[in-house]
Amino acid sequence: MRETADRIRKDSIWMSTRAGTGHLGPALSLAEILAVLYKGIMRYDPQNPGWPKRDRFILSKGHGCLALYSILSQTGFFERKLLEEFCSKYDTMLPGHPEMKLPGVEANTGSLGHGIALGMGMALAARIDGRDSRVFVVTGDGELQEGSNWEAAMTAAHHRLDNLIVIVDRNKLQLGDFTENISQLEPLADKWKSFGWGVRVVDGHNIEELMSIFKQVPFVCGKPSAVIASTIKGKGLKVAENRIEWHYKVLTPQQYEDLKNEMSLEELCHE
C-alpha cells in the first residue's frame, strides 16, 4: 500500500506537469486514503465495473481526480498508458473532473456539495435491493461549507444507513485560504456526531491507522460513519505542502526535471 500511495503521487505529479494543469495539492493529500481503500478494503471487479455487488467509491472533491485516475489505472480499470490523456483534448477520458465515461468512476463530480447525497442514494438503493454493498465518499473539508452536505448527512442518519462511509480529507486548506479563516468548521467531529453519525478521527497518511479504522465500519450499528482524516495538502511534494497557492498549481517542466532524481520520478509514468 505504501508503494501504491507513492505511485499515486508520482502519477499525479507526472500527469499534471505533462498537461500543464490540474489540482495537484488536493490530489496529493489523498494518496494513502485511496491506496488503503482500493488495496485493502473495498470489494470490486475491474474486469466487470458494473458488478452489482461491488462497493462504490465517490470522489465528491472531484478536483482531486489525479489521484483517482492513478489508483484506477493501478487496479486494472484501464490501461496505464491512458494517463497520458489527462486534460490533453476536449473529449479526453480523463478530464479535470471525473466523469462516468471512465471505467471505475461511479459519479460525475466536481460541482461541490453533491457527493454525500449521491452516496446516500446508492447506500439506500443497496438496502432496498438486499445487497451488502458499501458506499465510500471522499469529501473535501472546504466542501463541507456547502449546506447540501448537511441535508444529506441528516437524511442518511434518519434512514440509518450504516453502509455509508464518508471520509473527510481534512487538510485545512481550500482554494483561497485556510478553511477556518473562511468559514469555521471546528468542532468538526462534534458536528457529525450531532447529525447522528458514528465518528472517528485518524491520521490520513498513516496506512496502519487507516486500515484499522476502515475495518471497524460501521462504528455504530444503525448509523452512517464519518472518518475525519487529518492530512497535509500537497503531501510528498515539499514545495507544495500546506501551501494555499498549490490548490490549483502544477510544477513547471524545469521544476519537474530538478526533482526527478530526488523523488525518483519516471519520464513515463506507465512504464
Q: Widest sheet: strand order?
A: 1-2-3-5-4
Beta-strand fraction estimate: 5-15%
- Strand tally: 5
Termini separation: 19 Å
Helix content estimate: 25-40%
Oligomer: single chain
Average pLDDT, all residues: 96
Topology (SSEs and partners):
Blueprint: H1 2-19, H2 24-28, H3 31-41, E1 56-59, H4 65-74, H5 115-129, E2 135-140, H6 147-158, E3 164-170, H7 179-182, H8 188-194, E4 198-203, H9 207-215, E5 225-230, H10 253-263
Parallel strand pairs: 1-2, 2-3, 3-5, 4-5
Please tell me about this protein's structure:
By secondary structure, the chain is an alpha/beta fold. The chain has helices at 2-19, 24-28, 31-41, 65-74, 115-129, 147-158, 179-182, 188-194, 207-215, 253-263, and strands spanning 56-59, 135-140, 164-170, 198-203, 225-230. Helix 6 (147-158) links the parallel strand 2 and strand 3 (164-170). It is globular. The two termini are 19 Å apart. The mean pLDDT is 96.
Task: Name the descriptors.
271 residues; alpha/beta; five-stranded parallel beta sheet; 5 strands
Briefly characterize the structure.
This protein is an alpha/beta fold and about 270 residues long. Helices cover about 40% and strands about 10% of the residues.
